[in-house]
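Intended use. Records like the one below are meant for learning the mapping from a protein sequence to its folded structure. Do not use them to infer anything beyond what is encoded.
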Amino acid sequence: MGRLFAVNLEGKIYTCRHCRTHLALSEDVISKSFHCRHGKAYLFNKVVNVTLGEKEDRMMMTGLHTVADIFCVGCGAIVGWKYETAHEKSQKYKEGKSVLERIKVFGPDGSNYWITHEAHIGGSDADDV
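Structure written out for the chain above:
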């Protein structure tokens, strides 16, 4: 296997909670209203330093989606998923976007989901059924 080259981001960043590898910028957050089986999740326009798992169809609260799990390149931990295909017209905006599970990342201020329990506002945009 070749040498690992990780992208270092500048600004307010989300990092892997296991190894602190940079994953995304706070300015790339599209929505903080997503949910996963472990709690809150954020939809990002762009994430870095991840590898894609196998594509699979998953039935979520918002319908059927083809997704691929995303893994941190630093430690191999699963940190979320990427939307490859949305099968419902109203969900097409998710295609090509990634979700980071809040419990698996540190926020820009160094906080994690265990410490900072943010109030739930609005309904769930996505969730495994």
